[in-house]
Amino acid sequence: MFRNVVKVALRNMRKKWVFTLINILGLSTGIACFFLIMVDVRDEFSYDKFLENGDRLYRVALERIYPSNRIFYAIIPFSIGDAIASDIPEVERMTRIFKPGGSVVLKYEGKAYEETRLLFVEPNFFNSFSIRLVRGTPETVFSTPNSLVLTERTALKYFGKDEPIGKNLITPQGPFLVSGVCQNPPENSHLAFDLIGSLGLLGLSRRPDFVSFSSHTYVLLRPGATPGAVEGRMPALVEKYAAGQIQEETGQSFKAYTAAGNGYRYFLQPVRSIHLRSRLESEIRPNGNIAYVYILIAIAAFLIVIASINFVNLSTARSTARAREVGIRKIAGTTRGALVRQFLFESLLTTFLSVVAAALLAKLFLPVFNQLTRKTLALDLLKDPFQLVLLIGLGLGVGLLAGLYPALVLSSFRPVTVLKGRFTTSRTGIRLRNALVVLQFVISIVCMAMTLLVYRQLDFMRQKDLGFRPADVLVIERAFSLRQRGESFKQELLRLPGVLGVAGSNTFVSGGYYAGDMFQAEGDPEIKTTRGMVIDEDFIGTLGLTISKGRGFSRDFNEARNVIINETAMREFGWADPVGMKVRRTGGADQETGDYTIVGVVKDLHYNSLHSPINSFVYFCYAPERRVFGNLNIRVKPGSLTATAAAIDGVWKSFSSGEPIRQTLMEDKLEAMYGNERTSGRIFSLFSGLAIIIACIGLFGLSAYMTEMRTKEIGVRKILGSTPSGVLVLLSRDFSKLVVLALVLAVPVSYVAMARWLRNFAFRTDIGLWIFVAAGLVALAIEQAAISYQALKAAHTNPADALRFE
């Protein structure tokens, strides 16, 4: 019996090979896309799952409450960690990590290497994060402050097969002694490092600090302890340890300080949730986004649904052609259960062939998918049981779910009715097919609309006035390595023909780290909290900032005790005309407290990405002898970027002590802040295109079959004088109505999805009507293209051949 079932299935597939090919093509594309996306989603959810006791490991994060806003930080004051370890009994272990900004240059045997993934940790780091030491022990690898642990790949890069232990790596700040080698950290971790130094080297514990933010702090809770219990003890701990320092720095009591709207709310983040659910200031590495993971899952579901709809539509549409077969087999004694098994087997066989094709497609397009997601995912069905089970499960699930309804429909035909020739497609079947076609195009239109919106938002961000001119600006990072030769280097750069201006800053103009500052105006009891950066006199002119009140910094004045604020600070603090106002700096990252004078107001600069609103900001200009800038911003003549960059490199080599130059195009730096958005745009473009292609494959097959069923009708109409264009309108009219209905249904769904996505941006584009019009017109054009071939073919068929059909 099984052999007979296989024979019948193969004969039917061969007899209607075009429809079989359409089914396999649509299903294999949908399954391949679903498979690749689920492999990526699994990777996203796997972050930090390798950690032992990961269910009890938390990061202590901070919501810093200011009078006018709130900011969430992944770093907290260094000494808070000690207080947590000593005062909170629910905590079993505490460990801290410090991530320096920028990069460090290490030299070994005359070769210089630039390293950007350096962390400073405590000795219990290795036990806390399940990182195994290949050489050395946690108790000995940090026996000296300048000890350095390398990952296996970093040790191989520096020393090859030689023994690394005991070797010195030279930096501008002094030598590092290699004391250990650890395993490479997993890529699916919120931690990223190539070298680990001793936290003792930085001297953060020399002076207790419960206010300034510096370190990532992690706690391992005791079994049975809850995060809520720890969080409940934090307010008392802050008042106990931080109140004195706050009063010393602000001149206010802790009670008055909090009454003015200031505060520190500490909370615990499960380490395993950091990658997808944490977007705080000063993360160790860029995290993922759970919203984008859900979008990927939705796209995967859409694609597999569209592919399954094609299968159901074609199977039920062909029910008329197989009605007599069912009638004869029932008269011959075949039971309905046997027929259901027959049709289900045909469905599973088609799906099995589709799964094989999907596996080949997934392997073929994996490099493209990796480039799209910026990952290095691997497909190996034999070594990864998850991938094998997922693919087999997809085949069985799609085969059974997509094949069950057609099997039940086909097996339900009554022999007497169909053998008398009275069988026609039921209204229920027609309505179901129409509903499924509408659903396909609703999904396709939503995907198209979201794609258009993502690119519209990206274009909006590119065109947005950021408050400065980033075009044609090169940034030299790590300029502090020049030390006191920085000013001479700057003057040498100004002699280059392609350089229009050079300006120093202690951090990036946009997307950098900006230290917090506290100010108090004369006669104002309230302390204002803001952020700030240090610049030189050329910064405003070189970067193109606009002065709205007062003046910019100038070499004609001693600017060491002058500041410039942005317009938001003026509005937030209620200062109508702040130029000339005296303010007292009561706290800041460099502790340069004292009296300052506001000499100017600049128009707002977007110092963070457009996800975040603009807050109050202040610019300092220190005395020349104190200037060691981390960044030099160089404006070059348009069209001379390549030549000027090469010339700058030559000047750098004549000033540096062998450290490699690090030049970044400012526009590239800004673009990097929107990596997730660009990735989303590419993903939407690719998969919305695939969704449309799969829908068109099904529509092409369905229109081919419906045209075949109306062959005699078309012949009669042509004999009675119908033109080819009339036949085309006749056959396309019903499908066009379905697409229009899909557009009507897709508009509110798209609008809600787009509005929710745009909430991620403080500055965003509008949802224009043109997006829906464009998506609808594209859908109609695609629908017409999918059915026009079949319609025109039928319209040009000889009526005599049409009347002899069947």
Kindly describe this structure.
With 806 residues, the chain is an alpha+beta fold. The chain has three domains: 2-43 and 289-460 and 675-803, no CATH class; 54-277, no CATH class; 479-658, no CATH class. The chain has 24 helices and 24 strands. Strand 9 (168-171) and strand 10 form a beta hairpin. Helix 1 crosses helix 11 and helix 14 (427-463) packs antiparallel against helix 20 (675-709).
Describe this protein with a few key phrases:
single chain, 806 residues, alpha+beta, 3 domains, eleven-stranded mixed sheet, six-stranded mixed barrel, 24 helices
Helix percentage range = 40-55%
Structurally, the number of domains stands at 3
Q: State the helix count.
A: 24
Low-confidence stretches: none
Biggest beta sheet attributes: 11 strands, mixed
Mean of pLDDT:
83
Helix-and-strand structural type: alpha+beta
- Gyration radius, rounded: 34 Å
Strand-residue proportion: 15-25%
Distance between the termini: 31 Å
User: How many strand elements?
Assistant: 24
Shape: elongated
Summarize this structure briefly.
By secondary structure, the chain is α+β, with helices and mostly antiparallel strands.
Layout of strands and helices, then pairs:
Layout: H1 2-15, H2 17-45, E1 57-65, E2 70-73, H3 78-87, E3 91-98, E4 104-108, E5 111-115, E6 118-121, H4 125-128, E7 133-135, E8 147-151, H5 152-159, E9 168-171, E10 174-182, E11 195-198, E12 216-221, H6 227-250, H7 254-259, E13 263-270, H8 274-277, H9 290-317, H10 323-331, H11 336-373, H12 385-410, H13 415-419, H14 427-463, E14 473-477, H15 486-494, E15 499-505, E16 515-521, E17 528-534, H16 539-543, E18 547-550, E19 562-566, H17 567-572, E20 582-588, E21 594-602, E22 617-620, E23 631-636, H18 641-655, E24 662-665, H19 666-672, H20 675-709, H21 711-719, H22 724-758, H23 769-795, H24 799-803
Parallel strand pairs: 6-11, 8-10, 17-22, 19-21
Antiparallel strand pairs: 1-2, 1-12, 1-13, 3-6, 3-12, 4-5, 7-10, 8-11, 9-10, 14-23, 14-24, 15-23, 16-17, 16-20, 18-21, 19-22, 20-21
Helix pairs in contact: 1-11, 2-9, 2-11, 2-20, 3-6, 9-12, 9-14, 9-20, 11-12, 14-20, 14-22, 14-23, 20-23, 22-23
